[in-house]
Amino acid sequence: MNIIIITGASSGMGVEFALQLDNVFTYTIDEIWMIARRKEQMLEVAESMMNTTRILDMDVTKPEDMERFKNLLVKEKPTVRMLVNCAGYGVMGEFSKLNMQEELGMIDVNCKALTQMTYMCIPYMRENSRIIQLASSAAFMPQPGFAVYAASKAYVNSFSRALTEELRKKKIYVTSVCPGPVDTPFFDLAEKDGKTLAIKKLTMALPEKVVEKAIQDSFHKRSVSVYSGYIKAFEVLAKAVPHQILLTAMRYMK
Ligand SMILES: NC(=O)c1ccc[n+]([C@@H]2O[C@H](COP(=O)([O-])OP(=O)(O)OC[C@H]3O[C@@H](n4cnc5c(N)ncnc54)[C@H](OP(=O)(O)O)[C@@H]3O)[C@@H](O)[C@H]2O)c1
Fold first, then answer.
1. Which residues pair with 80 in a beta bridge?
2. What is the pTM of this model?
3. Could you tell me if 235 and 203 are in contact, meaning their C-beta atoms sit under 8 angstroms apart?
4. Which CATH number fits the domain that encloses residue 85?
5. Lowest-confidence region among 12-16, 29-33, 174-178, 248-252
6. How many domains does the chain fold into?
7. Residue 40 has what pLDDT?
């Protein structure tokens, strides 16, 4: 059985991946497995999809849910053609003033669960399988006011790029997706205690465009996917200019 697995499939870019991959892989895969906590949202999305879907309502931070998922893989022995790790969240604000559980939760979902999911799926992949990891342009440099989130995404980007090299000999291709702000429900939670810099809001992208580019980049075996000229320019800047200079400049931005 050939399958695609998408985490974070109840909202935002995870939904977009489900819809676009459903179109790309019509009749060439057997099932799309959709993972998130909100089952109703996933069922609603699945209704408009052509492929057979399997809705797995799981909290990826709960060991018992991940064990259930591991057992499902053992039972079904699928070939994982693509894994999209989209589950994630961010909370903005000053580190020492934010809720500690929410801060640690970002590490649990964005880093630990993504790593565990990747580890569990690789044994079921074969030549030409793909892994798409949702990092962020926040991975490019430290972000005061978004400290833990940016650090978690730097982890995702670093982990994914190393994995690209390790898996090259198996012909499994990994893409780290690094968008700037994307217009999804992400900001409902992210901005509850803090605000995005106005300059960042100007570069807000549409989820369908970011996901389309990510899928294309994955098919082209690119290790990093960056949508839009603004964010590519930011990537170049963050590579070329010492981070302390950029951090000092950011102090004066609102
Ligand atoms: N939007 C942006 O500006 C932006 C920019 C760069 C990168 N990203 C990254 O892109 C990814 C997708 O974000 P989005 O913008 O699509 O946000 P979103 O609309 O808020 O979607 C986040 C998804 O993650 C799932 N999720 C969160 N915690 C979970 C948990 N414990 N267990 C299972 N699923 C969980 C949510 O599902 P349930 O709540 O149903 O569990 C939801 O489906 C994230 O990794 C985010 O960090 C977003």
1. 3
2. 0.96
3. no
4. 3.40.50.720
5. 248-252
6. 1
7. 98
